[in-house]
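**User:**
Make up any protein.

**Assistant:**
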Amino acid sequence: MFELLRIAAPVSLLYLGIMAMGTVDLMFLGQLGSAELGGAGVANSAFNWFMIAGLGILYGIDYPASFAVGAQDRDRAYRIWIQGVYLSLILAAILMVMMGGTTALFPLMGINAEVLPHALSFWKITMWGLLPVFLFNATRSYHQAQLLVMPALWVLIIGNVLNYFLDRALILGDFGFPRMGVEGAAIATVVSRVFLFLALAGYTIWYDRKTIRAIGRVSAAFDEMIQREILRLGIPSGLQMLAEVGVFSLSTILAARFTADSLAAHNLVLNTASNTFMIPLGIGIALSSMIGNAMGEGNHARARKLGQDALRVGWVFMAFTALAMIVFPRPLLSLFHASDSVTEIATTLLWVAGVFQLSDATQTIATGALRGLGETRIPALANIVGHWCVGLPLGILFAFKWEQGVRGIWMGLSLGLTVVAVIVWATWRKRSIPLLPV
């Protein structure tokens, strides 16, 4: 258990730090008004579709890199990272062209007219942060395969401090800068993401010179075979994450059909739930590398124990977050400085979010455990079935046909997550039994 927490805690904090950038943006935007807050939320949700599609594919680096480290082949782990860099460049180029074409679709989405201009302003700038996000995560995966997690965490802490001051300067016009509002928030985010990659890449070069000295010694040529291996694992992983995060992003587009206050409340609760989700997500991502290491070493019993321990830790943590959301919703929402009308709506949504906390922990940690075994297809199918065949249709019915409004969307999301959790947890149970010692 201690070994798991030693690696998973910094990774969870790392992902919490990534979310903290968006949370700080919302805290400052909440001081401008519901339309600005809602517009940035809509654009960021659309951005997440493209970002998650790419990140999911790049998660295909995790298993082969961690397996290589476990098998004491660090040169191969280095080659896998280099292929991740090439893949990041390719994915960013393709997805940014698609994002440019998506701009014309915003007016056709039925978004509240008060919100739409702010969404477009944020969208046109934030898309430039896609490449540094991919490069940072490919590099982070390489470090994590070596169970080296603190450098990325320290880089992210500094990046959050930078983002905070950039937000103050560019959103509110502090320190003598012009007050740029929503556009300032987007610029601050892009600059912070560029810093994250450059800082972690600099550390990687320094660390390599101290250890294996792969740079300049091991071939950095494009390797088609490694690319195929990454894509074989990464494409199902990308579909899984796109199905999961995509349905939450689409829920924001649907919420934009209601009032600006309803959309703002939806964004606040989505951000709150996303922050709590970062802990089990970090556990699941760390777990995938640790199980991959164990499988590379041939230690199957350790791989199963890691998975079981991780699920228990996730359940305990999310039980506390569920309790906080249900019992203390207003203190949590007070952090965003939103209006009373927005807070009132958000309170009812936070109660629903509290209900699915345990399901969220189960599905993301079990998915990480399965990825450590090289299994990425079943989690993808589970997310498609749970979110798109169950959760989204029910959310639309609750929201529009049965007139539950934005709360109905969250009721559907909760049910969909529970279906995913049951399928993925049952799959882990089945796949982990053969790992028991005979």
